[in-house]
Structure formats: structure tokens, C-alpha cells
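TL;DR need C-alpha cells for one chain.
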Amino acid sequence: RSPSPKAPANSEAAQLAVWHLAPLKACLKRRSPRELQSVLRTVCGERYLQMVSRLRRCKNDPVKRRTACEISVASQLVQARTLLKDWQLALRDIGEARRQRDPVALKELLDRWAFAEDEPEDRGLTSKLDLS
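>> reply
TL;DR here they are.
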């Protein structure tokens, strides 16, 4: 069996991957769909291509490790985009429950998704179920 292609934490390739994903991880921790959308625009565009180019030139790391890092970053970005779609659907459902003035459904959705307090559909609703 060949050794795992995962990069050690101190490798240049791993550091690049962590640096590139740092804004995404912070955003996911805050659970803010608006912020996630903005961060994905940034980290999936030209910045991603630059990071991949730099990653591929990390000659101190074996090809397998560099490839593993590249695949890991791409995979995490795809997962974040999928999560964003789920969050957007949840925000739509929260808005619909609010329009229908359904406090039970609204509370259930807010408790289930627990978005950041500054989200427009969630603003102030978690503490008081304002259906006005």
C-alpha cells in the first residue's frame, strides 16, 4: 500500500490550501448565507486560479501531496456551494413562513438553521417571533 498523499500541516502546499480556505471556514462558522455567497465569489474566481498555479509550483512537496491539496480545496469549495444552495432554500422557506404568519413553522426553521443574527430573513426573529 502506498503512503497517504495527504500533506503534512507544515508543507507549503498545505499552507497554501489553508490560507485560501481561511475566509470560507470563518464564514461557515458564522453561518451567514450572504457572507458565504460573497466569499465564494472571491475564492472561486481568479484567486482560486492563482492559488492552484502557486500550489502546482510547490516543488518542495511531492506531486501526490500537491494534487491531494488541490483536490481537497476544490472539494471543499463544491461542498460550500452546495451548502449555500441549501441555505438559500432555507432562507426562502423562512420568508415564506413569515409571510404566511406561521409562528410554529418559523420557529422550527429558525431553530433548525440557526443563521447569523444579521441575516435579513432572520434579523431579530430568533429572540422574538415577530410576525408583523
